[in-house]
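Appendix B.2, paired examples.
Example (i):
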Amino acid sequence: MRLCITLLFAFIATIGFSQIPKGFKPLFNGKNLKGWHVSRTTHQGTTPNFYVEDGAIVASQQPFGQGGILLTDKTFRDFELYMEIKIDSFSNGGIFLRSNEGGAAYQVELVLPGNTGDLLGERIRVSKPGKATKRDSVWKAGDWNSFRIRMTGEIPHITLWINGVEMWSVQQTRNDFIAGATEGMVALQCHWTAVYSPAASGGMPLSSWIPGAKHRYRNIGIKKL
């Protein structure tokens, strides 16, 4: 059964990403940001530029240096998440899983060059990270790539597939969320950057999101488990 599912997503990856897979419900209507909202409490910033263009959610910095996160209005516990992503180089973002309003979450990182596909923590310390060591073998540079993420359990078990190929499957050793939260929102991150001086960057220099760079997301769907 697991092999069949993997082959199905690999087939989807070869035919142009025309729609979300069967059994998934759309999280994005392709027209506007209904069902989503920008966080006003995150340290990332409060005026990121999220908008819809050509059937995709686009994330950019406007004004430059100001980031933020776009969250689903609904929360989710156990789920599979599917989306197709096209990211420019030198722009740091991520997919947040079970996020709270402030952006504390498990994160699948999106940054090129860098650790795209790796499992990290955002405002939490992940007890067991994941490393997408096979990403380069399936990645389509400058094009759309499919991400499927499965997250289950109070102590989360998280699995990532990129273009139908499993990158990692990680069982956490504990619930890393504050107060042991077991559900949260899906969020898309547009990372802030320091625009004044290297000393102010806090490890996020200008190259973390260069002027004009964009992340694009389309065919976003979720299946509750």
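Example (ii):
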Amino acid sequence: MKKLVFLGSAITAFLTPVQALAANINIAPPTQGFRDIGDAISKILSIAFVVALLLVLIMLIWGAFEWIASGGDKEAVGKARGKILNALIGIAILAVAFALFRFAGQFVGFNIEDSGSINLSVPVPAKQP
């Protein structure tokens, strides 16, 4: 009988709502770093596009310099032409990736502003009153 009374009081204790004695906590957005995951992704993608563009332009200039410095050697001119062609293909791939990024952004919810920064709005749960 004592076990049954203990079990009944334990079940009642677990099912009875308890008032939480928590204070209201206000969390301010950070002043440095990333505000949220969308901000982190957008900044990483911005940096990735800039770095890729710089690498492609360096490769293009390097190929042009090798062509000029080849001195008429057909093998050196062929290597330089290959680097320049690869750099142009890289620019084309980068342009297609950027266009797909902007196109997909219209469906997913991120956009690129005129200033060049990318805004990614990730849906978050609504605040409860």
